[in-house]
Amino acid sequence: MALGAQREAILRMVIAQGSGAVVLGITTGLAAALGLTRVMSTLLYGVKPTDGVTFAGVAIVLALIALAACAIPARRATRVDPIIALRYE
Asked: Using one digit for the tens of pLDDT, what is the confidence trace for 45-85?
C-alpha cells in the first residue's frame, strides 16, 4: 500500500495465497484419509469408511475456517496506515 497498491488488491492477493495452501492441504488430507480407510474402518460406527458426504462436509468446514483465518488478518492489515507500519519496521 505504501507503493500505491489498492486495499482490495492486497486483500485479494493475501486470500489467493492462503487459498492455495488451503487447497493443497485439503487435497493432501483427503488423499491420506482415503488411504487410511482400512485402518479407520474398525473405529467408525454407523458411517461407511468412504462416505462421500462426510468427506465433503469436513472438507468444506475446514476450507471455510481456513479462508476465514486468511481473510481476518488480511482485512486488519489493509486498515493499517502504511506510514505507521513502515515506521514500526
From this structure: 777 777 788 889 999 999 999 999 988 988 888 888 777 77
- Nine cell digits for residue 69: 483465518
CB-CB contact of 55 with 36 (8 Å): no
Over the Cα atoms of the chain, what is R_g?
19
Helix (H) or strand (E) holding 39: helix 37-40
Using CA atoms, how far apart are residues 46 and 64, in angstroms rounded to an integer?
26
Q: How far apart are CA 36 and CA 5, in angstroms?
A: 45
HSE-up (13 A, CA, CB side) for residue 37: 12
Look up the pTM and report it: 0.72
